[in-house]
Design goal:
about 500 residues, alpha+beta, five-stranded antiparallel β-sheet, elongated
């Protein structure tokens, strides 16, 4: 046999002889020593020789060692203890210097176990490199075998040789052991619950183990830790939310019971995968109504503090809504939304609508219970006249607020113009007789100085004029001036100008 590396065509001189596979007489040959790179392509060929005769080379056989290699059997160690079987599995190639399967953490192990009897029933289960097989009958011989697999590469290995071991009886009574251990998780709040069959005083410790420690070949039995706040308690429940620090891994929890006689008993372990163990609670709902739309506001499960619920579950919401009337045949309608705000249109006036919402995650195939029903009534048609009336009143008030200052300003302008061009003060009649010209407005400018008009009246005055009468006239005129009023008793009474002209005429 000879071999070469690579996929390209090469010269015959580049072929190398396989050590240990020369002049063999069997129909097989082990050339493992020549394989140094498990992911490289190798070419192999063979020819026959008899004395001096040599056959042509066979067709080239192309192989990639990693893909054609088969996983070997793992090693196992068994120990019977307290009615159970403790098993420790060694990965394939554990005793070899050169290893093809480098990452032993990728291995998964399948166990097949059965009673060593004629009518045995085979039981299969997955196990960790170090594990305990319980639920076995005491004083019974069990046989088992283990297979290593690589799920990512879809490879299954060979089973280990069959090993048998006899179980023992449990050393302590399990009457005070915690039973029916279960996890209740809602909105990422985790609680462990269990039952107590023992009537006497019993205290409990809740313990946990980080999941990846079980994948290691080391013994993890000494790596269990107590849950803070769940130590030496007498209740049959406790919250262990504080230890869930990541949702990407998984955990194991168990209960250690301690009797008053300082004996202890461990319960069965419960696996906790946070996102799959947790249940989704109902969301919160608020509803509001407008003229044509029903508004629905949704609060995610867990409230504003539960960011894990929103980030990892990719929640959607299933909204159910219906008319809450005496007619039981009213159709319940449904719509699914991704947002936390939704609307419903095509509403009937004066109708009571009810809504409830369910949260669900398609990826994890989980859904919550429906929320409480929330109902709201749509406005009726009789509200339209009130809206129109309110609109009219508001518009009227707006017009009055704008028109009032405008009317007041126009009125003031009109009063000023009337005072300037049409004064209400009229001169006395005796002034109108002397020239017939009205008083000029003090706001009007004049281009000419006013000229007093005089007329000479020739009148013969007899000497018989009674001086006393004249004095009486002057006295009467003085009184009229003091009073500030004009007297119209006769045509000769008037203003000061009339008085002076009259005196000139008398002289």
């Amino acid at each position: 046999l000879s071999y070469r590396f690579g996929n390209t065509e090469t010269n015959e001189t580049e072929w190398k002889e396989l050590p240990g596979c020369q002049n063999v007489t069997r129909m097989e040959c082990d050339f493992s020593s020549a394989i140094t790179e498990y992911y490289d392509t190798h070419h192999v060929r063979i020819r026959a020789e008899r004395r001096e005769e040599v056959s042509p080379w066979s067709s080239i056989f192309e192989i990639i060692p990693y893909f054609i290699a088969q996983i070997g059997p793992p090693g196992i160690e068994l120990q019977s203890t307290n009615g159970a079987i403790k098993i420790k599995v060694s990965p394939p190639e554990a005793n070899q210097v050169r290893k093809m399967w480098i990452s032993y953490l990728d291995f998964k192990y399948n166990l097949v176990i059965w009673e060593n009897s004629s009518n045995a029933e085979f039981r299969s289960q997955s196990i960790f490199p170090t594990d305990i097989i319980d639920d076995l009958a005491p004083d019974t011989t069990y046989c088992l075998k283990v297979q290593a697999t690589l799920p990512l590469d879809m490879k299954e290995g060979l089973f280990s040789p069959i090993r048998c071991v006899k179980t023992t009886r449990k050393a302590v009574s399990d009457l005070f052991c915690a039973t029916n251990v279960r996890v209740l998780a809602l909105n990422m709040k985790f609680h462990l619950l269990w039952n107590n069959r023992y009537k006497q005083h019993v205290s409990y410790n809740v313990q946990y183990l980080i999941g990846y420690l079980k994948k290691l070949p080391d013994d993890y039995s000494v790596k269990w830790l107590n849950v803070p706040g769940c130590e030496n308690i007498t209740d049959t429940q406790c919250s262990f939310s504080s230890i869930i620090t990541t949702v990407s891994g998984f955990y194991y929890v168990r209960v250690q019971a301690m009797s008053e006689y300082n004996t202890s008993c461990l319960s069965n372990e419960v696996k906790v995968d946070p996102l799959r163990t947790n249940e989704i609670g109902p969301p919160g709902v608020k509803v509001d109504i407008s003229d044509v739309l029903l508004h629905i506001q949704i609060s995610p499960p867990g409230g504003s503090e539960s960011e894990v619920m929103r980030e990892h579950y990719d929640l959607s919401y299933r909204v159910l809504y219906w008319k809450n009337s005496s007619n039981n045949e009213e159709e319940i309608k449904m719509k699914e939304i991704k947002q936390t705000i939704g609307t419903v249109s095509d509403l009937t006036p004066s109708t009571l609508y009810c809504v409830k919402v369910q949260a669900f995650s398609e990826f994890y195939n989980k859904s919550s219970r429906y929320s409480e029903e929330k109902c709201v009534r749509t406005p009726g048609d009789e509200i339209l006249p009130l809206v129109i009336l309110a609109t009219f009143v508001i518009a009227l008030i707006a017009v009055l607020l704008v028109a009032t200052p405008l009317v007041f300003a126009l009125y003031q302008a009109y009063a000023k113009m009337k005072y300037v061009f049409f004064p209400s003060c009229q001169p006395p009649l005796n002034i109108e007789g002397f020239g017939g010209q009205l008083f000029s407005s003090p706001y009007m400018s004049t281009t000419e100085e006013p000229i007093a008009n005089f007329s000479i009246i020739e009148t013969v005055i007899t000497e018989e004029v009674n001086q006393i009468d004249f004095k009486d006239y002057k006295h009467s005129k003085q009184s009229s001036r003091d009073s500030g009023n004009y007297s119209n008793d006769d045509d000769t009474s008037g203003s000061k100008m009339s008085e002076e002209m009259l005196e000139k005429e008398i002289v």
